[in-house]
Write a structure and sequence with these properties.
This protein is of the alpha/beta class. It contains 10 helices and 8 strands. The longest helix has 14 residues. Strands 4-5-6-1-7-8 form a 6-stranded mixed sheet, sandwiched between helices. It has a two-stranded antiparallel sheet with strand order 2-3. The chain starts with 8 loop residues before the first strand and ends in a 5-residue tail after the last helix. It binds adenosine-5'-triphosphate (ATP). The site of adenosine-5'-triphosphate has 10 residues, from helix 1. This is Phosphate ABC transporter ATP-binding protein.
């Protein structure tokens, strides 16, 4: 099966617990490389080049295909240093440039107005939703093409979740976002395309509206109508 992700927009990966959503997501930036006994099959082309080829630079890959996890993952540094972290890796960047890039990333993540007066305070002092947006800004700062998000709002309260969702909505015209979510309402609210996984297989992928209202497969119909999962 050939599966294409477009250069921008949100694709939601849905399915019952243990259906393989996270396992699939992690293949997209080679997160399984460090795990013993994992075999990845198939071809994963990124701008026409197989990301599993030996010549693909892993650090570059993870900059261009960034990942945001379920738990916010700020480092115990200032907000500024968190976002600047990836920009500083392996090169010297002038402060003026760094300031600009940090601001841009925080604006894109929808956090700038809330933190612009306290960039030097510890990111761990922020709320969960703010910490998650710091995590998103940190990934955005390295100028990725793709953001992989593994249940990015499931550890947050409903209000913080909505704020993070809104940030993702603002990013979808510029980036390719691929998001694992347990929350079908969330998938329906924010994604243009949805993929349904079950028992380690991709069952069906299509426009979100079609997957929810008019799926091809009975398995998908049963899941979206709440008959299992
Ligand atoms: N295609 C597959 N091949 C081999 N193992 C798989 C496959 N899909 C899933 N698994 C195994 O099933 C387990 C659950 O998978 P995974 O965590 O990806 O599911 P999930 O849909 O993300 O679940 P949850 O929604 O609970 O986070 C993992 O241990 C994984 O190794």
């Amino acid at each position: 099966m050939i599966w294409i992700f477009y250069s921008h927009g949100i694709t939601a990966l849905i399915g019952p617990s243990g259906s393989g959503k996270t396992t699939y997501l992690r293949t997209l930036n080679r997160m399984h490389d460090m795990t013993a006994n994992v075999k990845v099959e198939g071809e994963f082309l990124f701008h026409g080049k197989d990301i599993y080829s030996d010549s693909f630079d892993l650090v570059d890959l993870r900059k261009r295909i960034g990942m945001v996890f379920q738990q916010p993952t700020p480092f115990p540094f200032s907000i500024y240093e968190n976002v600047a972290f990836g920009l500083r890796l392996g090169k010297k960047v002038p402060k003026r440039v760094l300031d600009q890039e940090v601001e841009t990333a925080l604006r894109q993540a929808g956090l700038w107005d809330e933190v612009k007066d306290r960039l030097n305070t510890n990111a761990l002092g922020l709320s969960g939703g703010q910490q998650q947006r710091v995590s998103i800004a940190r990934v955005l700062a390295t100028k990725p093409d793709i953001l992989l998000l593994d249940e990015p709002t499931s550890a947050l309260d409903p209000i913080s979740s909505r704020v993070v969702e809104n940030s993702l909505l603002n990013l979808r015209d510029r980036y390719c976002l691929i998001i694992v979510t347990h929350n079908m309402q969330q998938a329906a609210r924010i994604s243009q395309r949805t993929a349904f996984f079950n028992e380690g297989r991709l069952v069906e992928i299509g426009k979100t509206r079609d997957i929810f209202l008019n799926p091809v497969e009975k398995e998908t119909q049963d899941y979206v109508s709440g008959r299992f999962g």
